[in-house]
Write a structure and sequence with these properties.
Bound molecules: FE2/S2 (inorganic) cluster
Order of helices and strands: HEEEHHHE
Low-confidence stretches: none
CATH topology: Sufe protein. Chain: A
CATH architecture: Alpha-Beta Complex
Largest sheet: 4 strands, mixed
Strand order of the largest sheet: 3-2-1-4
Mean pLDDT: 92
Shape: globular
Number of domains: 1
Radius of gyration: 14 Å
Length: 148
């Protein structure tokens, strides 16, 4: 179990140090800004959606290692997905970090965030990008993560 935990920590650190899909997306069709009221950190998620498929996604902003790694992993998982699939992944990630679902039920890199459930104050860090994604998909320009 310790080996698995170490692997998960490595995945999070690696995405924090080398975040994927960072920056502006000039031709975005959907965009939102998310704020974590506990720390004041915020990030933007921008998507280009064509024929109901996410053809590109980027994020930018400041935040802790968990929030940045979570945003990076999220973008890698969502490219090429449909809006419905993105919404389903949001639900799965949310159930994972809040402890409703076991890590074994989650695909690959998502499971790396399962340990967050042991640190309730960090759940908002892990879900910041995902709540911002959902806001963008619903054409809500700004969201404050008042819930987990
Ligand atoms: Fe601000 Fe984690 S401490 S997002």
């Amino acid at each position: 179990m310790d080996e698995l935990r170490e692997l998960y920590q490595q995945i999070i650190l690696e995405h924090y140090r080398n975040p994927r899909n960072v920056g502006e997306l000039p031709d975005a069709t959907h965009k939102a800004e998310g704020n974590n009221p506990l720390c004041g950190d915020c990030l933007e998620v921008a998507l280009r959606i064509i024929n109901d498929h996410i053809v590109d996604i980027r994020f930018r902003g400041k935040g802790c290692a968990i929030s940045q790694a979570s945003a990076s992993v999220m973008t890698t998982l969502l490219k090429g997905k449909t809006v419905k699939e993105a919404d389903e992944l949001f639900e799965r990630f949310h159930r994972l970090v809040t402890g409703i679902e076991s890590p074994s039920a989650q695909p690959g890199t998502l499971a790396a965030f399962a340990g967050i459930r042991e640190f309730p104050s960090r759940v908002k860090c892990a879900t910041l990008a995902w709540h911002t994604l959902r806001a963008a998909l619903q054409n809500v320009p700004e969201v404050t993560t008042t819930e987990e």
